[in-house]
Amino acid sequence: MPELPEVETVRRSLATQLIGLRITGCPHLDWPRTIAAPAAAQFCALLQDRPITAVERRAKYLILRLDQGEALVIHLRMTGQLTVQPAGTLPDSHTHVIFDLDDGRRLRFRDARKFGRVWLLDAPGLALLHRHLGPEPLDEALTAAEFALLLRRRKGALKPILLNQQVIAGLGNIYVDEALWQARLHPLRTVPSLTDDDVQQLFQAIQSVLRSAIEHRGTTFGQYVDGLGQAGANQHHLNVYGRQGEPCSRCGTPIEKLTVAQRGTHVCPHCQLRP
Ligand SMILES: [Zn+2]
After folding, report:
1. Given 12, 22, 154, 263, the catalytic residue
2. What is the pLDDT of residue 222?
3. How far is the CA of 241 from the centre of ligand 1 (A)?
4. In this structure, are 160 and 55 located in the same domain?
5. Are residue 32 and residue 75 in the same domain, yes or no?
6. Span from the CA of 257 to the centroid of ligand 1 (angstroms)
7. Is 246 one of the catalytic residues?
8. What are 47-51's contacts with CB under 8 Å, separation 24+?
9. Residue-range definition of the domain harbouring residue 13
10. Which of 2, 5, 137, 187 is catalytic?
11. Which of 79, 110, 139, 174 has the lowest CB atom count within 10 Å?
12. 194 CA to middle of ligand 1, Å?
């Protein structure tokens, strides 16, 4: 499932292709539930001749800025793919929305599992989206001290807290497991049990795993591709996620898989002592 590094990779690959183009219509919409707002019937009419002025990301949301303060907002969820396609590309069975662009190419939203969602939001709608999300972990304005304050407001186990988008935005199952391994913290450790040094290590680990994953253009296990349709390479650089039974790259102990917060969770039982 795309997390911050994957969505950021899609953003970068779309920005170079889309900024300055206009959406001229949406000739294909075969799964109206994909459109979260407004009603699917109005959605296409509202997207006639709209310029794309910027391509941004907030947490795991892609934000295509249009005119009049509005934006097309896309959440890829499990299997969504947003790619620029050549003129004349026809929809396959997993293509749920196609946008025509004024240079003849097409922006295609493909989603095998159909959990992905698209919104056309006005400025107040966008402000609401931002308010519902915690800070961006790679935002230069977020200091280690502020991260510690955010974390110390919570009392429970680390993994569900880090998955909570209102605490810190953009992390999902892969990068929470990777960051906790790097910081040598078990996912069931509670916030009150952490020393200030633990919290500092965790903050650095979160930033480091995200930066590294963006450099490797995201992790592809299933459907994730960037805006050019290319898979990422970060799956070759993971330390715990999906590596159960394989040796820990730090100590050689086999990685174990357990369930935390109903999510498959990967740990090194030697480096990450269970509380
Ligand atoms: Zn280890």
Report:
1. 263
2. 85
3. 13
4. no
5. yes
6. 13
7. no
8. 47/23, 47/72, 47/99, 47/120, 48/23, 48/24, 49/22, 49/23, 49/24, 50/22, 50/23, 51/20, 51/21, 51/22, 51/23
9. 4-131
10. 2
11. 139
12. 19
Q: Does residue 138 sit within a domain?
A: no
Residue 141 has pLDDT above 90, yes or no: yes
pLDDT, one tens digit per residue, over 155-198 is 999 999 999 999 999 999 999 999 999 999 999 999 999 999 99
How far away, in angstroms, is 260 Cα from ligand 1 center?
Answer: 19
Confidence of residue 41 (pLDDT cuts 50, 70, 90): confident
Q: What is the pLDDT of residues 99-134, one digit of tens each?
A: 999 999 999 999 999 999 999 999 999 999 999 999
Please give the structure tokens belonging to residue 125: 């709608």
In this structure, are 156 and 254 located in the same domain?
yes
275 within domain boundaries: no
Indicate the residue among 131, 153, 181 that finishes a domain.
Answer: 131
Using the mean position of ligand 1's atoms as its centre, give its distance from the Cα of residue 247 in Å: 8
Residue among 58, 60, 106, 108 flagged as catalytic: 60
- For residues 226-231, average pLDDT: 96
Alpha-carbon gap, residue 62 to 71, rounded angstroms: 10
CA distance 169 to 163: 8
**CA 88 → CA 23, 103, 105, 123, 157, distances in Å?**
15, 12, 7, 33, 51
- What total number of domains does the chain contain? 2
CA of residue 122 to ligand 1 center, whole Å: 48
Give the other-Cβ count within 10 Å of 4's Cβ. Answer: 26
Residue 249 forms part of a structural domain: yes
- 113 among known catalytic residues: no
Q: What is the pLDDT of residue 98?
A: 97
12 domain residue, yes or no = yes
Domain final residue, candidates 77, 102, 131? 131
The CATH number for 238's domain is 1.10.8.50
- Cα–ligand 1 centroid distance for 18 (angstroms): 44
**Residue 263 is among the residues annotated as catalytic for this protein:** yes
pLDDT at 76: 97
